[in-house]
Every structure is written in C-alpha cells, then in structure tokens.
Design goal:
Layout lengths: L17 H14 L3 H20 L6 H12 L6 H8 L14
Amino acid sequence: MARTSDRKEHPLSMRLPEADIAMIDRAATLRGRSRTDFVREAAVRAAEDVLMETRPIRMTAAGFAAFTAALAGPPAPVPAMVDLVRRRAPWEPGDPETGA
C-alpha cells in the first residue's frame, strides 16, 4: 500500500552562473544567513510583491467615498517628518549639535 506523506518542504534547484552564486553567497554572509535561507527569503519577498501588486482591493461604496475624501483632503503634518525636514544634514556646514 502506498504511503502518502504531508511534506512541508519541497526541493527547488536552479542552475546559476558562478558570478551569481558568488554575489548571493557574499550577500548571505553579510546578513549572517545560509545561501538557502537567503535565496528562499528573497524569492518569497519577490513573490509577495508581485501578488500584492495584482491583488484587487475591495470596499463598499461608503468605504470608497471615505477613502477618496481622505485623499482629496488637506494633508495632516506628521511631527516626526517636520522635525526631520528642519534638521541640518550632517554634511551641511555648521555645528549639528547647536544648529549654529
């Protein structure tokens, strides 16, 4: 009798140029990950991005009206962003500590 198993892992193999493998290995090392973990994470992230780009967003007519009203309304300032824009960049002349 054939035994069926619920495998949670499925093999995936690729043939890549040596230069690609070297780049992947270097990046994986910088992240402290194995090549397999690094490639799996990157592939899943790329797949999620594609799926999110093509996933329709559904909402009620009232929800859509509220959404478009929020987009059309005046922007609300975000205090952290206002502070960031007002701050002197580290490469600009002057003392970044005192602002002088």
